[in-house]
Amino acid sequence: MGRRPCCDKLGVKKGPWSAEEDNKLINFILANGHCCWRAVPKLAGLLRCGKSCRLRWTNYLRPDLKRGLLSEAEERLVIDLHARLGNRWSKIAALLPGRTDNEIKNLWNTHIKKKLLKMGIDPVTHRPLHRQAITEASSSTVTADKSDEQVQSQGNEGQKPSSDNWSPAAASSIDGGTEPLMSCLWEDSTPAVLLDELWQLSSDDDGDNYGSVIAGRMPWEEEGSSELLLDIQDLGEFGWREIH
DNA sequence: AACCGCACCAACCGCTATTAG
DNA sequence: CCTAATAGCGGTTGGTGCGGT
Questions:
Q1: Which nucleotides of C are covered by protein (CB under 7 A)?
Q2: Which residues form the Myb-like domain (predicted)?
Q3: Which nucleotide is nearest to A91 (CA to C1')?
Q4: pLDDT tens string A127-175
Q5: Which one of A41, A77, A110, A151 is least enclosed by Cβ atoms within 10 Å?
């Protein structure tokens, strides 16, 4: 017995949203909020499934969304965060106010990936392509690092395996931070451990930090975050591994 | 002007995680 | 604890617009 589809296929509209549908959804959510996405289309008078409504709202209709191209700083932050978090687009988006996971994912696949490849950097591993080839050739000699990688991926909260199963965090420790682009990125950005801790926080607290990001503040700008910053700065490599 | 290939992006699909009963 | 319902995430697809030939 298969899983029931998220919505009845019959009588559910698909494809691009019309202005009328957008208005209905906006008016409904602004007036009532989204108590339960499954109920939204019915209550708002839309022939869409709840999933589609949620997507339309979060990716396009949300009033706090920024439209248009990412700034240079935002783009760098995306690369930076991707090096730490991998393809966790929602986590990356949560740290970029007014941007959506879909938008960042699209941007990554269309612009940044190519840009990095042009620079001779593997967009998956964030390492120089030629150097990666050398590393792969001698992979049998780095068994210790391999086991580290396994530990990392095991603690990966059941992320499904994929072609980029490689863990950026593990690789950065392998690489020692000598790769030019990444070292440049890390010099003027948030420390790796801090970023990951913030990520933990944002996923642990029901999106409160996400709320602050929406309000135009980064989580570490929240009141009381300074204590967290100090705590995190005190974490050494051991502490880092303990967290994960 | 017509065709083609490419890039972009909105939306869908299938899966996992979480929550409620 | 188990199961089903729901929410959310990430990968992928398809429509559209644009530039080149």
A1: 5-12, 15-16
A2: 9-61, 62-112
A3: C9
A4: 887 665 556 555 544 333 333 333 333 333 333 333 344 444 444 443 4
A5: A110
Residue type for position A55: L
A76-134 pLDDT, tens digit per residue, is 889 989 988 888 998 899 888 889 989 999 888 888 888 888 888 888 888 887 665 55
Question: What one-character DSSP code corresponds to residue A45?
Answer: T
Question: Chain B positions under 7 Å from a protein CB?
Answer: 7-19
d(CA A180, CA A93): 25
Sequence spans of domains, chain A: 19-61, 72-159+168-243
Inter-residue contact A183 to A177 (CB < 8 Å): yes
Which residue carries 């700065």 as its tokens? A233
Long-range own/partner contacts, residues A154-158 (CB < 8 A, 24 or more apart): A155/A244
Closest CA relative to residue A16, chosen from A61, A56, A57, A59: A56
- A51: which nucleotide lies closest, measuring CA to C1'? C7
Instruction: Please give the mean pLDDT across all residues of chain A.
Output: 63
Please state whether strand B lies within 7 Å of residue A210 at its CB atom: no
Rounded (10°) angle between helices A168-175 and A192-204 = 170
Please tell me the pTM assigned to this model: 0.64
With CA atoms as reference, report the closest residue to A106 among A78, A65, A72.
A78
Those residues whose C-beta lies under 8 Å from the C-beta of residue A73, and which sit 6 or more positions away, are none
The answer to whether the Cα torsion of A79, A85, A89, A91 is positive or negative is negative
